[in-house]
Design brief:
- The chain has one domain.
- Helix content is about 75%, strand content about 0%.
Length: about 80
């Protein structure tokens, strides 16, 4: 097999997503930073190889654990502000 014909497999980001989820429990900011770094790396791998295993896990983790708490606190503040 020629060296140019052989395709290299991209890195699997599922383990990184699992470790990032665990890191979110230890601290919000470190988990968010690691999540964004891994997500950017996965997007770069997707652009290079056409797919990146675990990219969806990292994206959902950013939505649920990264943006979710901020949106919930904002909603709770809005409700409490208009409740009284």
């Amino acid at each position: 097999m020629n060296e140019l014909e052989r395709k290299e497999m991209p890195r699997d980001y599922t383990r990184a997503a699992t470790l990032t989820l665990i890191l979110y429990f230890f601290g919000y900011i470190p988990g968010l930073v690691v999540n964004i770094i891994n997500l950017l790396s996965a997007v770069s791998a997707k652009n290079s190889y056409g797919y990146a295993p675990g990219l969806g896990c990292l994206a959902w983790l950013l939505v649920i654990c990264g943006i979710g708490p901020v949106a919930l606190f904002g909603l709770a503040y809005f409700i409490l502000l208009h409740l009284y």
